[in-house]
Amino acid sequence: MEAVVEAEGLEKVYGETVALSGASLSVERGEIFALIGPNGAGKTTLVRALTGTTEPDSGTARVLEESPDAVDRNRLGVLPQAFSPPARLAARELLTYYAGLYDDARDPDEVLADVGLADAGGTWYEDLSGGQQRRVCVGATLVNDPEVLFLDEPTTGIDPAGRRTVWRLIEELASAGTTVVLTTHDMAEAERLADRVGLLADGALVARGTPDALVREHGGSSRLRIETDADTGAFRGLEYPTERPARNRQRSDRSETDGTVVVRNVEPTEIAAVVDYLEDRDLAYSGLSWSEPGLEEVYLELADETERDRTVAPTNRSEGSDGGRGSDDDSRTDDELPPAGETA
């Protein structure tokens, strides 16, 4: 397969803050690659390095077999996290303006329909809802029908129905051959869209793979949550491992109260055996819920590992507002990223 986005050993330091520390990746044509990671992990800095808007201190990046700053901008679409076009232009006028920046642009009304705003073309940008505004911004990156699309938190602020519209659009673009690199904090978005996922922590990709492969390797086991005040000792005769989650544990299986016991490695067909165990011993319970691990568990497990490593062996990262986790989306402003029409 042909790699159209490549990075090898990218490093970037802002003062004492390490934004990228050897980040490497390769994205093939038509692939959707999702970057996930904590605030300050380096996701936006990596996107900037790949789009030629930030010069890395060391390492190499190539897009469409060229240096990012040499790629024909007609072939790229870039959506930064923060994008504020003129508020007193209508949605159609904005897309018409951006279409005018390219040699062979798409019909703005077509693009509005693609992002689910066919009926809002005449509405001033400032009068659109926040989610609609974000969809206009997504549309601005598509007017040139790009070969490679970089989307930094594309669905932030978009309602569930609008989010699904954007998801379907991204999937259709990839099916037609567009290569997509996106950042997201929405694990459902990454699971739905991504062919592969890269988890960025402290400026380096600490895990890469398909969502299923990452879940198998890092997600842990299935969980049957039992709402009960019974002590975990009452479950010693059960053939499955059990635990009572700590109240302060920052994980998805964390109990909000003390009244939850988690039974692991239970298949759906085995839940009845656990219920029989409870009833045979008169163990009162008020509810049962079963779940299998997903990308959220992967994210939390690897983020926990990174946090523990940082605590045990602190580095020279600066102690900024994000706890010294590197410069990223939230530690530096997006003013350095030009509007979509100038970088797309």
Automatic annotation (TrEMBL):
**Residue span(s) of domain ABC transporter:** 5-227
Write out the entry's keywords from A to Z: ATP-binding, Nucleotide-binding, Transport
Report residue spans for region: Disordered: 239-263, 303-344
Renumbered to this chain, the Basic and acidic residues biased-composition regions fall at 241-257, 319-330
Q: Does the keyword Transport apply?
A: yes
**Family annotation (Pfam families):** ABC_tran (PF00005)
Q: Which domain of life is it from?
A: Archaea
Name one molecular function that GO assigns to this entry: ATP hydrolysis activity
ATP-binding in keyword set: yes
Among PANTHER family, the record links this protein to: ABC TRANSPORTER ATP-BINDING PROTEIN (PTHR42711), ABC TRANSPORTER ATP-BINDING PROTEIN NATA (PTHR42711:SF5)
Can you tell me which family this protein belongs to? Belongs to the ABC transporter superfamily.
What's the protein name? ABC transporter ATP-binding protein
> Which source organism?
Natrarchaeobius chitinivorans
